[in-house]
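ENTRY TYPE: paired fold submission
RECORD: A
CONTENT: sequence, then structure tokens
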Amino acid sequence: MLAALRARRELRALPGQIDDIDLYARLRSPAAPGSLDERTWRDLDMDAVFARIDRASSGVGQQVLYDLLRHPARDWTELAERDAGVRRLAERPAARQAIAEALRSLRGRGTYQLPH
């Protein structure tokens, strides 16, 4: 219960941004097979889940994370590839830092419009 309240508080810290953050997911594949429909999304309170786990340092990162939640992988091969990518970055702190620095310039509300 406490975690849910904390997640809702964090979501409030993103006033009006969810509509900007979900833009990429809506434009990329609004009703792709396997994507979560609006009712399921609301029933699972996925905006609060997103707010709780979001640690992205850029708007683009937030949009990709939101899209991953909205369109979860259902194929073990895809999941294994994602996991391998995460492991490679975990093993290469210099590469991770370089990517973070490159994405740092993509902060601010204007970056949410990049999918257009």
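RECORD: B
CONTENT: sequence, then structure tokens
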Amino acid sequence: MKHPHQGARPTDLQQPFSLKVMIAALAGAGVFGGAGAFAQEAPATEPQAIVVTGVRASAQSAEKIKKDSDQIVDSIVADDIGKFPDNNVADTVARVPGVQVLRTTSEANTVLIHGLPGIETLLNGRDYFTTFGRFVQLADIPSAMLQRIDVYKSQSADLIEGGIAGTIDIRTNRPFDFKGFKAVVNAEMDNEDKARSNDPNVSTMISNRWKTPIGDIGALFGLSYVKNKFHEERAFDVAPTPNGPNGSVVGPFVMGIEDIGGTRTRTAENIALQWRPNSDLQFFAEGMSSHYLNKSETDFFV
């Protein structure tokens, strides 16, 4: 019986061994030292996923709202509670392109879209009646309660009629906007140098949601208080007209100075309840109350 390697050439068995010896010798001499170091510096690791988390769901982002809408719409979204740095909604909506506001005593009150009046104002997509009429008085609502503002610059059949220049929809927070318990207190002090006063701006909100045998339930309550003193000085005159004997003197027949001062107090409360028994059905109830008091005095020197 022959040996398994009988008849094979000696070189057939010696070549693999000689190659291994040569590689070992080269590695010992440092020829493959760089490759060895590289292997140590970059060990194999498992792929890692990069997760980017926003402060609001993508459906609430201003960019997505504008992209998905059939109308010409601009939106601004608060990244957290009380993060609109304004006293009232009229000041906040002025940040939207194409919206202008008229200011009186250092505060916005009248809102225009592309310079036109005739604006329909909604609260959470619904008509809202106030003592001023069939519209929301934007200057009466504190900005701390806002979740977002949608400004529609063109009309469609699903919008409530009346907005010749456009429609402004004010959206407030709801408990399902948050993942769980949320409690926020914002406080600031504004220095009014002309009125020589330090004025408070305080808002708070508490919200929570629960998983129950009958579905998800959420509740939210918010409160806001803003007080500020104001002082404004105005100089006025009229167009020059002929005066004196035979119209020999041309000039304004009246000129003067107005000294305006006062105190504004703005309080508001809102509540929202939500119930989602399943993924296809949702019930909600919400309400808001606002109170605005303006005490002012105007002195004329004519």
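NOTES ON RECORD B: The first helix runs from residue 10 to 29. Helices lie at 10-29, 33-41, 62-68, 89-93.
STATUS: closed
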